[in-house]
Amino acid sequence: MPIQPTSPPATLIVACLCADWCGTCREYQPLFEQLQQEFPQAKLLWVDIEDEADLVDPLEVDNFPTLLIAANGEPRFFGTVTPHIDTLRRLIQTHQEPGARALPEAGGLRGLVQGLVRKQQAA
């Protein structure tokens, strides 16, 4: 039986959209950052929506933490999550799979993803 080539995992951006004044976000940040070691192929980014308002606008982020997961420049997940490390771990695992689908109607999110990529490249 021939060996089927496997696709490499998608290049992921995992952005946590939070605010400095949010106590839940402050407690979640070290857990979020800890997963970078577990998923070195992903770029985990902490985005303060007030400090980075120009980057986040025109999106409305009303609840925290809100995650944006994009693979190869295409948004795959955008929403508020419970601040548990296992939830984030499962989301990353799911969305790095080659068969995971992009979000439909993600026009505004694509702009944010592009902005995050440019910011990473400039750093």
Account of the protein in words:
This protein has 123 residues and is of the alpha+beta class. It is 38% helix and 22% strand. It has 4 helices and 4 strands; from the N terminus they run βαβαββαα. The chain has helices spanning 23-38, 53-56, 85-95, 107-122, and strands spanning 12-18, 42-48, 66-71, 74-80. Strands 2-1-3-4 form a 4-stranded mixed β-sheet, with helices on both faces. The chain is globular and about 35 Å long. The chain starts with 11 loop residues before the first strand and ends with a helix. The relative contact order is 0.22.
Question: Mean pLDDT, nearest integer?
Answer: 85
Secondary-structure element sequence? EHEHEEHH
Question: Which blocks of ≥5 consecutive residues have pLDDT under 50?
Answer: 1-7
How would you classify the helix and strand content by structural class? alpha+beta
Question: What's the gist of this structure?
Answer:
By secondary structure, the protein is α+β, with helices and mostly antiparallel strands. Helices cover 38% and strands 22% of the residues. It has four helices and four strands, in the order E-H-E-H-E-E-H-H.
Keywords:
alpha+beta, 38% helix, 123 residues, 22% strand, globular, 4-stranded mixed β-sheet
Q: What's the layout of helices and strands?
A:
Blueprint: E1 12-18, H1 23-38, E2 42-48, H2 53-56, E3 66-71, E4 74-80, H3 85-95, H4 107-122
Parallel strand pairs: 1-2
Antiparallel strand pairs: 1-3, 3-4
